[in-house]
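S1.2 Input.
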Amino acid sequence: MGVKCNIACQYCYQHPQRDVEDKRKPYDMERMKKAILKEGQKFTLFGGEALMVPLEDLEELWSWGLEEFGVNSVQTNGSLITEEHIDLFIKYKVQVGVSMDGPDALNDVRWAGSLERTREHTQKSQWAIERMCAKGIPPAMIITLHKGNATADKLTEMDRWLMDLDTIGVNSVRLHLMEVESETLRETYHLSPEENLHALTHFHRLEKQMKQLRFDIFGEIKQLQNAEDHQVSCVWKACDPYTTAAVSGVEGEGQRSNCGRTNKEGIEFVKAPLPSYSRYIALYHTPQEAGGCKGCRFFSMCKGHCPGTSLEGDWRFRTEHCQVWKKMFELAEEEALAEGKTPLSQHPARPYLEKRLVEGWSRGQNYALQSLIRELAQKPQMATV
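S1.3 Output.
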């Protein structure tokens, strides 16, 4: 159903698409299935709000998905989940991701038309999380940080909520720094770099107090400092905005699409046949004062981050959250050194790895750091190049 949604999160990066998209967008089950088979991999139902699709169509897709791929998944705001949905999640092995920013007022930015309806939807999402945990299928969570939930005065309430999630069985939380689509949005909800850093370092300390709940950001940055990048998120993997390797979208009529984070003007560009890594070659050579990454010791790990968060909404620049990520990489660097380890940012082989990354991008290849490390292990004399 495209980017159609039952709520209107005020920071949603899909609003530019909603402004121009056909509100009556149809879908064809057989065309979608054929397109998925052509992609050749398991799929995630994604919106907008995926659970606006009728229950019988969800069951048809998940029944087929289980038969073809052995597993299913869905990303939802959680407010439409019912017992019937949960029964289908269990029956068809559906891995569920829930996007929610906090309890009660801390979730108000995920607006549903009025304060009363917004709080009602928040309670429904909370019920769904608790019910899934009770049924033994805890969801993964996505939390976007903004002034409504992550300023210093709100962190104590967030702590209580997250500790409760940890207690009932939630074990995975992805933290998003808010993506900005307008200056009005920036002024109203966007955290300053200092506020983002304060929130992230606060949650990093909180993580150490929890039994099982882990925030993806901290683990991934540590992995990247160890040159272990096969399992990290797409934002660290030199995403080409015209092919978005991490997102092979299949729309309602079976057409291919890219990650919506790059659709800043509401335009769904056709997926290009071949990837281009010109953004990353340019960032490597462009001075930091001009929007690039030249000379940054974290470049091989961060790569300018997600093009959807680029300065001025222009994917040719590095992320506007550069200051935040630099500090988080510095913290991981300090932790590694304290443990007697040499992080990638301080490793003598780093210049060689950067050179190999750029060489690969110039040929349309996007090397994994782990592959380049194995290459070095076979040719140890190259480690000091």
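S1.4 Remarks. The chain has two domains: 8-212+239-250, 277-384.
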